[in-house]
Amino acid sequence: MLKLYCLCCQVRIQTPKQPDFINECNCTLCSKTGARWAYFHPSDVVIEGTTKGYSREDKEDPAAEVQFCANCGSTTHFILTTSAISKFGNVQLGVNMRLADEKDLAGIELCYPDGRAWPGNGGFDYVQEARIIGGRVSAK
Questions:
Q1: Would 102 be classed as within a structural domain?
Q2: What order do you get walking across the sheet with 131-132 strand by strand?
Q3: Does 124 fall in a domain?
Q4: Is 137 inside any structural domain?
Q5: What's the rounded Cα separation, in Å, for the pair 83 and 137?
Q6: Is the pLDDT of residue 13 over 90?
Q7: CA distances from 104 to 20, 26, 36, 91, 132 (A)
Q8: Do the Cβ atoms of 37 and 110 come closer than 8 Å?
Q9: Residue 6's pLDDT is what?
Q10: In this structure, what are the phi and psi dihedrals at residue 99, rounded to the nearest 5 degrees?
Q11: What is the CATH number of the domain that holds 126?
Q12: Dihedral angle sign, alpha carbons of residues 87, 33, 26, 103
């Protein structure tokens, strides 16, 4: 069981497993919210506490709504917007792994996608090689 908490501990997140990998994206939204995202099916995540949401206003049809603790402001997770759910289904929820104790993430690959250069479809290029948390650098 992986347990994560915001700074004030009023938002608590649990998932029964570690993520396969974590992304530290350099896009404006990810870098300004300070998030390192791991992706789960929504049914695999339990979130307790009050959050506030924000969807990008610079995108005509944003796919994600970032959630923040209503008390301390920590970025906690993201959910798909209604528009994205209607296109793809409710298949993904992002959890900010910066809320986890890094020792609980040992052995997980940390990737660095180039979200700023991403055209909006297809795969990502990467700004640097991935590394294993608590370990050595791996090739991507």
A1: yes
A2: 51-55, 64-69, 75-80, 93-96, 37-40, 21-23, 109-111, 131-132
A3: yes
A4: no
A5: 37
A6: yes
A7: 13, 23, 14, 25, 13
A8: no
A9: 98
A10: -80, -15
A11: 2.170.150.70
A12: negative
Identify whether the C-beta of residue 40 lies closer than 8 Å to the C-beta of residue 134: no
Q: Is residue 139 part of a domain?
A: no
β-pairing verdict for 109-111 and 131-132: antiparallel
- 20 lies in which domain range? 2-132
Q: How many domains does the chain have?
A: 1
40 beta partners: 93
Q: Mean pLDDT, to the nearest integer, of 86-115? A: 93
Tokens 């917007």 — which residue? 81
Nearest to 23 by CA among 4, 39, 37: 37
Inform me whether the pLDDT recorded for 49 exceeds 90.
Answer: yes
State the burial class of residue 15 (Cβ atoms within 10 Å of its Cβ: 0-12, 13-18, 19+). Answer: buried
Confidence band, pLDDT 50/70/90 cuts, at residue 136: low
pLDDT band at 127 (very low <50, low <70, confident <90, very high): confident
Q: How far apart are CA 100 and CA 40, in angstroms?
A: 15
- Sign of the Cα torsion 25, 39, 18, 4 reads positive
